[in-house]
Every structure is written in structure tokens, then in C-alpha cells.
Prior knowledge:
By secondary structure, the chain is α+β, with helices and mostly antiparallel strands.
Amino acid sequence: xxxxxxxxxxxxxxxxxxxxxxxxxxxxxxxxxxxxxxxxxxxxxxxxxxxxxxxxxxxxxxxxxxxxxxxxxxxxxxxxxxxxxxxxxxxxxxxxxxxxxxxxxxxxxxxxxxxxxxxxxxxxxxxxxxxxxxxxxxxxxxxxxxxxxxxxxxxxxxxxxxxxxxxxxxxxxxxxxxxxxxxxxxxxxxxxxxxxxxxxxxxxxxxxxxxxxxxxxxxxxxxxxxxxxxxxxxxxxxxxxxxxxxxxxxxxxxxxxxx
Length: 259
């Protein structure tokens, strides 16, 4: 009698368990297909939106702007990229991106055009920059394309440049704009990142003058940003409280581009 009752109870439990498994399987599959359908509908809606003037859908630009605000609020100038020994740097860093470097630049007449304010422009030679304390930065250069390299750069710390040329008032602005001499490549960078101690106006690579294809005579190295912000062949610099134009942001990329 007891054996029969135990068998019956086992069969009941087995039936209930199989029923629950079937029910949960159906619910799980239903939930999956609903989410999949909603996801497809969202992406269809998103990518059928008309692109804005900056070549990106408004919803994606708002997401970029949210990320800008979030990462800007978390940024600290004390944050530094890991540095390495000179012998660890690659002897010939990869050349990537030639916009703004087309044509031959007359380096004998080159000057950094520093716009201090409207109607107040200063022209600075490379030798004048080299007279300032030199800073070497050896770090892992990162590109938005997914590759990275250990690289060795030398130049003037941007914070020292600010001090030397009495730009403390300008440094209270929110952004710095940089443009190549031919005006075809341009970036805008938040002032906090520019004042980070590893940011340099760079004139050397591996202890030697910058090669032409790496931005000679002067380029930006800013380790807290992806490579798209490291403008080569700097021609003009200015300060602004509104976002300066940015070449890749106008083509759908993240304006902040921080690491």
C-alpha cells in the first residue's frame, strides 16, 4: 500500500515538473521573440531616421552627448595613462590618417597661430616652443579602429605652454580648437583634458624631430583621448566656451572620444 502511494506521488511530481518545464520554455521563447521583435523594430526606426547636419541620426547624437556629459563629470586631471620605458616603444609608429597633411608645408615660415582673443593673435616659432621645458610621454597610443602601439613622444606640456604665454584667462574657457594650416582637419577638445599633465604639443618622436607624415613640425599628443583627437601639423589654436568644429564628430563619431 505504501509502495503504491509512493509511486503515485512520484508520477504526480513528474507530471507537474514536466508541465512546469514546458510552460517555462514557452514563456522564455515568447519573451525572447518579443524582445527580438522590439529590437528589430527599434533598429529599423533608428536607421530610417533622417540624418542631421553632422551625418548621424539625432537619437544617436543624443546618446553621444549623454556619454560626453557622463565621462566629463567623471574626468580628473590626475588621471594618467600608464607610461613605459623608451626601449619598449615601437621604432616606427604606424601612420594613420593624412587629412590636413596633403601638400608640402614650408617649415621655414611655419608659425603656430595662437588666437588669444578676437583681434589678438600671436605667432610662435618652433624654436620658441623648444625653449620651454621638454616632456617625454611613452604610452599606448589607441585608435578607434581597434589597434594600439607603444609610442614615444616629446614636446611641451600644454600646461607649461599656458603658463609661459600667460593664457590663464583663456584656460578658463571650456574648449580648445586646433586646425591644420590648410583648414581641412580640425578638432575641439575639452580644456580639462588639454590640461592633463601628459598632454603635449609634440615636436619629437623617439627622440628625433617628427617625421613629415607624423605631423611635423608640431602635433598634439593627448593620451586620455583616442587618436582621432591627436591633430597633426597644428596651424592654429583658439579657445572657446562653445564646442569648436570637429572633423570626425561631423562624420558621426563621439565628440568627447575619451579613454
